[in-house]
Design a protein that fits this description.
single chain, 361 residues, alpha+beta, Rossmann fold, 2 domains, 6-stranded mixed beta sheet, 5-stranded antiparallel beta sheet, 22 strands, globular
């Protein structure tokens, strides 16, 4: 196990980068604590896999330092870093049995046969592979093959970290939930540093204790799933986390109120200092879960449609030409296109140039 840290880490695939746009990863200082469960979450092309490749040693960064437990491993080859990696597509030896596949890393390291067998039996029991230990890998489905890939990382007691690069991509949808749950349970029983790359917020939020949200090669927020939902530090996080994402409304701040298009005013419970907003693009953010259709609502809106999501219903509305999403209370049935909404003041957030503005002290 290891604590993995970055000091001013950055990477560009250009031989002579001229500016931030040429960097796949922009300068960052960050750490993954020993035995933590982390997810790297963001859209395709945001730098997740590049960062994973730098951790594993498959890619040397253009700038900065990678530390394992305080030791500079930046120039180290992958085999020296003692990192296990699970890829999108299962990497198994089809002609070997499940037992032989799991024992392969131990045999290569000269682990005594009795110790290796005991370790394989233990890991197979964790993964639900005990009954398949004698079967050839080629006869197994994609989910079991991915379990073998995972097992080859877990079977090594000396592994520094296990890295997962979109490991459930090829798994049938009805099996994904089972594997996600099993992976979470595995981390509780085998406390090793795990870093999970995905573009799927459900996978990230159900697996990780802390989620690293990335956009455009930059880390925009690191936090617990609850913190990312309750208090997004960036408008990208508000939009990317949640379904539907956060409502964002352009506004001005005047005398402690957010002035929305159409002249509508919303009292800010914790207005920021005026000087922090000068010359910046200001937006008011609130999640649909805290935006409700109500007869005594504060703002008149035009109801466009209602969507039934099973456990809840949401309303698509317009406020002065701006699209908003709100939740509908149980039993509510708007009878016309005219409606009113109300915002929960405890969940209002103000953003300047995309970043959360803190209240004045």
């Amino acid at each position: 196990m290891a604590r993995i840290a970055f000091q001013q880490l950055a990477h560009s695939y250009h031989p002579a980068p001229r500016g931030p746009i040429d960097y796949a990863l922009r300068p960052m200082d960050m750490a993954f604590d020993d035995a933590g469960a982390y997810a790297l979450l963001g859209p395709s092309g945001c730098g997740k896999t590049t960062l994973l490749s730098i951790i594993s040693g498959l890619l040397r960064p253009s700038d900065g330092t990678v530390l394992f437990d305080g030791a500079d491993v930046t120039p180290w080859a992958p085999e020296r870093r003692n990192v296990a990696q699970v890829f999108q597509f299962p990497v198994v030896y089809d002609t070997m049995t499940v037992r032989e596949n799991l024992a392969f890393p131990l045999r290569n390291r000269g682990v005594p046969a009795r110790e290796a067998s005991a370790r394989v039996d233990y890991v197979a029991s964790l993964l639900g592979l005990t009954a398949a230990l004698g079967r050839r890998a080629r006869n197994l489905g994609a989910d079991d093959k991915q379990k073998i890939s995972l097992g080859r990382g877990l079977v090594r007691s000396d592994v520094a970290a296990i890295l997962f690069d979109e490991p459930l991509t090829v798994i049938d949808p009805h099996l994904k939930w089972e594997l996600r749950s099993r992976l979470k349970e595995l981390h509780r029983q085998v406390p090793v540093t795990m870093i999970y790359v995905t573009h799927d917020q459900t996978e990230a939020l159900t697996f990780a204790d802390r989620v690293v949200v990335m956009a455009g090669g930059e880390v925009v927020q690191v936090g617990t799933p609850e913190a990312l939902f309750e208090r997004p530090a960036h408008t990208f996080v508000g939009h990317f986390i949640g379904s539907p994402g956060m409502n964002l409304l352009p506004c001005e701040v005047v005398s402690g109120e957010a002035v929305l298009p159409g002249g509508h005013r919303i009292l800010l419970p914790h207005p920021p200092a005026r000087e922090t907003l000068a010359g910046r693009r200001i937006e008011l953010g609130i999640r649909p879960e805290f935006t409700r259709i109500a007869r005594d609502g504060d703002l008149p809106v035009l109801l466009r449609r209602v969507e039934d999501l099973g456990r809840r219903r949401i309303a698509r509305v317009e406020l002065a030409g701006l699209a908003l999403t709100a939740t509908l209370p149980d039993g509510a049935a708007p009878s016309s296109d005219a409606a009113r909404i109300t915002f929960d003041p405890a969940h209002l957030h103000l953003y300047a140039d995309g970043r959360l503005v803190e209240a004045a002290p």
